[in-house]
Amino acid sequence: MSIVAKTAQVTGRVQGVWFRKNTLQQAKKLGVLGWAMNMEDGSVLVHAQGDGERVDSLMEWLWKGSPLSRVDAVVVDSVESISVDDFSVR
Known about the structure:
Elements: E1 3-13, H1 19-30, E2 33-38, E3 44-51, H2 52-61, E4 70-78, E5 87-89
Parallel strand pairs: 2-5
Antiparallel strand pairs: 1-3, 1-4, 2-3
């Protein structure tokens, strides 16, 4: 299994709508490591790493988000992997 790492900046109505908690649940379901964090500009930054297909699945899921969210854009970049042992909300 080759490990890939990606970050995604998610914009829209993604804060205060359980977006990070739902992302955490989806990441754990997929077996992806990383974190989701609110940014000062109102977006959510997600770092995900693991099996390429699983990371890609999470990146696609971000367009759906939580039931109350409205996702306007998901900007994905490939990044270096970091030392993480689970998926967390920051």
